[in-house]
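queue> holo job accepted (SKM)
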Amino acid sequence: MNKQSIFLVGPMGAGKSTVGRILAEKLGYEFIDSDHEIEARTGVTIPVIFDIEGEGGFRARESAVIDDITQLPGLVLATGGGAVLSADNRRHLAARGFVVYLRSTVPALVQRTKNDRNRPLLQTDNPEAVIAHLLTERGPLYEEVADLIVDTQQASVFRVVRHIQDQLVREGVVA
Ligand SMILES: Nc1ncnc2c1ncn2[C@@H]1O[C@H](COP(=O)(O)OP(=O)(O)OP(=O)(O)O)[C@@H](O)[C@H]1O
Ligand SMILES: O=C(O)C1=C[C@@H](O)[C@@H](O)[C@H](O)C1
Ligand SMILES: [Mg+2]
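queue> job finished
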């Protein structure tokens, strides 16, 4: 039987990359991070892609990666925070695997992203306002595709991983 893949969605700083890597290890699944896959395919960083091609260019590359990766069984995919903006991406994510929305609050997301300069959309004087705005816009889209929602603001990375694992067993997604 093909193993169903697990797709992590949620805002910047929710922990998709961090949680996803550990979850994959625990399940014995391959781990793919769509942001890293885009960087590997282009040979440049995400800020450079935004500089040269704009957000639209980045989103086209992101959609190509999501379409490819979501067709593979038995992996954990950490998506980029804006992956759900595309209706095609949402359709592929919802139809091809088990989607986990890592939810968090604005203060926790601000705290977790403040020392990282690799997120072009947060290179602003007021990252808190940007994060709040993005959450308002994208929150319903994360919810739309989610099979499971996990609140992460109060929980350690390991507790989040453990909770997801328990739910995957309960739902019969993994043995
Ligand atoms: N539950 C948690 N508790 C405390 N810190 C966390 C938690 N989850 C993630 N972090 C920390 O927050 C930071 C951002 O996490 P991460 O890069 O995994 O987010 P992301 O969801 O992949 O963001 P992006 O969409 O920008 O790729 C990291 O330093 C990570 O260690
Ligand atoms: O929330 C977003 O729009 C983004 C999140 C990151 O994962 C990267 O995909 C990129 O920085 C854009
Ligand atoms: Mg990430």
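queue> The pocket of adenosine-5'-triphosphate (ligand 1) is lined by residues 10, 12-18, 35, 78, 80-81, 112, 119, 152, 155-157, 160 (CB under 6 Å).
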